[in-house]
Amino acid sequence: MVLQKIWDMGLEQIVVQTVVMMTGDVTTRVQDELCRPRSEALFAIHRQSTDVSVARWKDLLDAIREIAGTAVGVLLGRRK
Fold it and tell me: In which element (H, E) is residue 28 found?
């Protein structure tokens, strides 16, 4: 995980970062100089990327729930 974060961060300067925790907490950090007019495109790209990421987490959790439900059903003698 640390290697992934290093790769994600690279050598570029982070100007907008959003962290979504498993608890549902969301933290977004934005550099002050980006809180000016003409930053809308950057924020739109960031928002779209965050939406896609959260949707993939939801898909993953839905798959885990489906697998776990099927496994419990099999263990209890029920077929799904």
Answer: strand 26-30
Q: 15 by DSSP, 3-state: which?
A: coil
Distances (CA, A) of 66 to 13, 29, 77: 40, 35, 16
CA dihedral (46, 50, 52, 57) in degrees, to 10, reads 160
Is residue 27 within 8 A of residue 19, CB to CB? The reply is yes
> Of all helices (H) and strands (E), which one includes residue 45?
helix 40-75
CA 11 to CA 70: how far, in whole Å?
44
Q: Strand, coil or helix: what is 80?
A: coil
36-79 pLDDT, tens per residue? Answer: 888 888 888 888 989 998 899 889 999 999 999 999 988 888 76
User: What's the pLDDT score for residue 31?
Assistant: 86
